[in-house]
Amino acid sequence: MHPDPFEAKEFVFEKIVSGVRVYDSEGNPLLYAEREGVSKLGKEINVYASKHGGSRILTLRPLQRPWREALFLWMPIGLGFEVVEPSGEPLGTVRRRAIVRIIRDEWFIEERGEVVLRIIEKSPIAHVLRSYFFPSKYLIFRGGERVGTFEQVRRFTPFTYRMKIEGRVNSKLLVSWGILNVILSVRF
Fold first, then answer.
1. Which residue from 19, 120, 151, 164 has the highest number of Cβ atoms inside 10 Å of its Cβ?
2. DSSP label at residue 4
């Protein structure tokens, strides 16, 4: 097990009923994320070192209460979360680009107001049919350089995703995006 769970270069995300488990490439548990309440949107998501509680490592706070929740529960567009350390210090924000969402999923990770990572869905066709036929795959860019991938591993249950990091990035923000994406993309 890693002393710092964010030092790993490969993460496996597993959606379970109560939250998201995060493992390293060898299957060692690293993190557990749990959202408050039943709603997917408008609630904090807390990240812990294990499912059995303990101290909170990160919190993902919605930037605002999305009014779209009632109308677009199945397709939340244009939303953002602030990633916060236990001390209350903000690390950055994770935002979904609203306009492009209809064609292709696109996210931005910002630190101190500057976009540091751009995450785009690989195929617009897969986006349209992803919930039914195709597993999703995202490419992660810093500037114009690809620094990672995030893809769904095709198993019916549990819903499993794999993230590979190939360059130097803020892993806390990237893993926070992975947790958020898994929570928002899985539909029962």
1. 19
2. S
